[in-house]
UniProtKB/TrEMBL annotation, chain A:
Listed Pfam families: BPD_transp_1
Gene encoding the protein: choW
Subcellular location: Cell membrane
Protein's name in the database: Choline ABC transporter permease subunit
Gene Ontology biological process: choline transport; glycine betaine transport
Record's keyword annotation contains Membrane: yes
Membrane topology according to the record: Multi-pass membrane protein
GO CC entries: ATP-binding cassette (ABC) transporter complex
GO MF entries: amine transmembrane transporter activity; carnitine transmembrane transporter activity
Keyword annotations of the record: Cell membrane, Membrane, Transmembrane, Transmembrane helix, Transport
Family label: Belongs to the binding-protein-dependent transport system permease family.
Residue ranges that the Swiss-Prot or TrEMBL entry lists as coiled coil: none
From TrEMBL, chain B:
NCBIfam families associated with the record: ABC_choXWV_ATP
Known EC number: 7.6.2.9
GO molecular-function term, one example from the UniProt record: choline transmembrane transporter activity
Secreted among keywords: no
Family: Belongs to the ABC transporter superfamily.
Annotated catalysed reactions: a quaternary ammonium(out) + ATP + H2O = a quaternary ammonium(in) + ADP + phosphate + H(+)
Annotated keywords: ATP-binding, Nucleotide-binding, Transport
SMART domains (alphabetical): AAA
Span of domain ABC transporter: 29-269
Superkingdom of the source species: Bacteria
GO BP field: response to osmotic stress
Name of the protein in question: Trimethylamine N-oxide transport system ATP-binding protein TmoW
Assembly notes: The complex is probably composed of two ATP-binding proteins (TmoW), two transmembrane proteins (TmoV) and a solute-binding protein (TmoX).
């Protein structure tokens, strides 16, 4: 190697060690808080899963189909949703599907709850967005396995850490699409609101958010899809559901099990996507 | 007359830090120089303009002349860098440039309404919800709002469309919604930023007529931005011409047409039909400039074909045309009169030049006399006066 490279290699910046020290510091000092949070979250998620599993599967299918009809006013969609979910029952994957469904819906909801306000803030303050942007890039591009490890040490095994890694991966999309929706509200209608004496709050609720709603809803759909794509990783740190089945299929080279669980995820994805397309399709 | 809006030495510079630009402006720098040195855009400089209550004041100019910039200073959609914009607020005047946020909001909700070129309607709201926007923002309860909105929709003939969405309407209809929204707040001052420019010519003319019709009863103070001189001449009581961010001329329409301040204005009016603006008053020769024919007689024309005898009160007691006694007839009766050479027509100062020309045509080019409201003789128009006014020589 050339001398410059030698010199550079001789004084390695200990980023890895710093990171480790930081997480060790967190576990040493705040372990109780992280574990308490994790246990509470696990209790909540498991409770939801158990609650849904108490009901007869067919009743839950009927409920979801009814919800699909209520959201989209489409009989074809309701029938399609019912058929898809009945197929999952047929494959014997109902319990795992419910676990995954709860995880995905919780992750998407939490991501939107955090991401939408952040997106609005970023849209109003370009400086904030400039600082936020590299953090969002980091969250989306850092390989998932890298943050599985610290999350595992902080939160332990279970549904809660699965939810947390999913949220880390999904939030940037909620932020970005909300930001996009709000900054692309036409100036003409913003000025109309201002010219008639809107306060900042009125401008947000009566002009900006309704105008950005289609984009924000597209963000919700994206969040659900991305959460689904994380179920396999979440399963690696103890979240149950279809991801666990796929990991097991991979470990034992069971093509049949992999195919069944994989199809169940696809069905779930299509069902959730079609159900949440509000404001993008026909309805205003 | 009461002042509704008063621009006082208004400078508007777009950019982060405007102090350097303003200093350059004071040293007489042009817009291009300021842009090159500081990167700031000079929107408007040294604007002084007074708009009286109940008048339609038109700001005219090519795109980039600063007309919209100045208009938008009235409700602070544009920030004024220096100067004052006084706006009537009840019985006092408020400086929009320096007032606090609550005052500004009150002005926007109750005193100054706006109509936009691209309509600015909210697409997810129905027509009636759009019209009620200003009232809703001002916190008016829904029942009261519905009542007012219904009345406004009636006024602009939109009632059958109340439940439609904006995009289901044609451009002309959408701008009617924009008008109704502005009228709904009952603000006495109306800002109109090229409201009819996006419409096709027939609809544009129709909406102009409707606006003038409504104005007769509503008597708003309207500041209207336009790049179309025909439109400005049609609806404006005052026209202000802007160039490169500065006001170059301001005055009544006929002043602009008869006495353009510079070549820019002259170019502007080059294609305007003077007959649509000028009145008898604009082209007449005053009686003191007429040639004396002796014994109380005055020649009405330079060719000395027609003369009047005027008494001490200024009333006409005798008329003569080509040496023969003649009668004087109002131009209002022009359709009833026969084509006799012994007629001398008279008009009022406000009579249109078009009618004066018709009278000349009917009376074999005899001059037309001008009488005031007390029938006193004030002046005369000869054929040469008409020709020079039409040809602008």
């Amino acid at each position: 190697m050339d001398p410059v490279s030698n010199l550079l290699a001789a004084y390695k910046i200990p980023i890895g060690l710093w990171g480790k020290a930081f997480f060790t510091f967190l576990t040493d000092n705040f372990n109780a808080i992280f574990r308490g949070f994790s246990n509470g979250l696990n209790l909540l998620l498991d409770g939801l899963v158990d609650g849904l599993l108490l009901l007869p599967p067919v009743a839950v299918v009927a409920l979801i189909a009814a919800l699909a009809w209520y959201l989209q006013r489409s009989r074809a969609l309701a029938i399609g949703v019912a058929l898809g979910l009945l197929f999952i029952i047929n494959q014997g994957l109902w319990k795992q599907t419910v676990e995954t469904l709860v995880l995905v819906v919780a992750a998407a909801a939490a991501s939107m709850a955090i991401g939408v306000p952040l997106g609005i803030w970023a849209a109003h303050k370009p400086k904030v967005y400039r600082i936020m942007l590299p953090v969002l890039d980091l969250m989306q591009t850092l390989p998932t396995f890298v943050y599985l490890i610290p999350v595992l040490t902080l939160f332990g095994l279970g549904n809660a850490p699965g939810l947390i890694v999913t949220i880390i991966f999904v939030i940037p999309t909620a932020v970005r699409l909300t930001h996009l929706g709000v900054v692309s509200v036409p100036t003409a209608i913003i000025e109309a609101g201002q010219a008639f004496g809107a306060t900042k709050r009125q401008l947000l609720w009566k002009v900006e958010l309704p105008a950005a709603l289609p984009t924000i809803m597209a963000g919700l759909t994206q969040c659900i899809m991305l959460s689904l794509s994380m179920v396999v990783f979440a399963a690696l740190i103890g979240a149950g559901g279809l991801g666990t089945e796929i990991n097991r299929a991979l470990g034992s080279r069971k093509i049949d099990l992999g195919l069944e669980a994989g199809l169940a995820i696809v069905v779930l994805a299509i069902v959730l996507d079609r159900m949440t397309r509000i404001g993008v399709g026909g309805k205003k | 007359m009461n002042v509704a809006v008063d621009f006082k030495n208004v400078d508007i510079v777009f950019g982060a830090d405007t102090t350097g630009s303003l200093a350059m402006l004071d040293k007489g720098a042009t817009r291009a120089e300021i842009l090159e040195k500081t990167g700031n855009v000079l929107g408007c400089a040294g604007a002084n303009l007074t708009v009286n209550e109940g008048e339609i004041s038109v700001l005219m100019g090519l795109s980039g002349s600063g007309k919209s910039t100045l208009l938008r200073a009235v409700n602070r959609l544009n920030i004024v860098s220096r100067g004052q914009v006084m706006v009537k607020d009840g019985d006092k005047m408020v400086d929009v440039v320096s007032c606090d946020e609550p005052t500004l909001r009150r002005l926007r909700q109750h005193q100054v309404a706006m109509v936009f070129q691209q309509f600015g309607l909210l697409p997810w709201r129905t027509v009636e919800e759009n019209v009620g926007l200003g009232l809703e923002l001002a916190g008016m309860p829904e029942a009261e709002r519905k009542l007012k909105v219904g009345k406004q929709l009636d006024l602009v003939n939109l009632t059958p469309w109340a439940k439609k969405y904006a995009h289901e309407l044609s451009g002309g209809m959408q701008q009617r919604v924009g008008l109704a929204r502005a009228f709904a707040t009952e603000a006495p001052i109306l800002l109109m930023d090229e409201p009819f420019s996006a419409l096709d010519p027939l609809i544009r003319t129709k909406l102009q007529d409707e606006l003038l019709q409504l104005q007769k009863t509503l008597k708003k103070t309207i500041i209207f931005v336009s790049h179309d001189l025909e439109e400005a001449l049609k609806i404006g009581n005052t026209i202000t011409i802007m160039e490169g961010g500065r006001i170059v001329q301001s005055g009544p329409p006929e002043d602009i047409v008869l006495r353009p301040a510079n070549d820019y204005v002259r170019d502007f009016i080059a294609n305007v039909n003077p007959l649509s603006v000028l009145t008898a008053w604009n082209v007449m020769r005053d009686r003191r400039d007429l040639e004396d024919a002796g014994e109380g007689w005055l020649w009405l024309d330079r060719r000395k074909t027609t003369r009047f005898k005027i008494d001490a009160q200024g009333l006409v007691v005798a008329a003569e045309r080509n040496g023969q006694p003649a009668v004087w007839v109002s131009v209002d009766d022009i359709e009833k009169s026969s084509d006799e050479a012994s007629h001398v027509f008279w008009a009022k100062p406000g009579t249109s030049l078009k009618l004066v020309m018709l009278a000349m045509h009917r009376s074999q080019t005899s001059p037309v006399a001008l009488f005031d409201d007390q029938s006193r003789f004030v002046g005369a128009i000869g054929i040469r006066d008409v020709l020079s006014a039409v040809l602008r020589r």
